[in-house]
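Many introductory courses stop at the sequence. We go one step further.
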Amino acid sequence: MDAVARGGAVEKEVDLMIRRRDDKRRETEGERRVRELWAESEARHADKRREENRLAWCTFHEDQAARHRAVLEALIGHHQAAAEKYRENGHHEEDSCGSAQKAK
């Protein structure tokens, strides 16, 4: 093998070594960047999901409080009306749901 041929072979080996190192660097750094981007995306998604859940729980509790308020106000009204009926009429008659009978 003459010097020119050997020089060409060495140059090919150097080029191959450089290409391999560059490929390895790109693979390592590229994969790291992809993982970093994925982690950032996942963190944003988790934050968004937590915020949506927080708002959903807030809405649930506000709505539940309104439902309880309506039920309790209806019960209060029912019992106030019943108390007024007994106060004004002076008798012990219950409606169809009660067990007491009219006093005789």
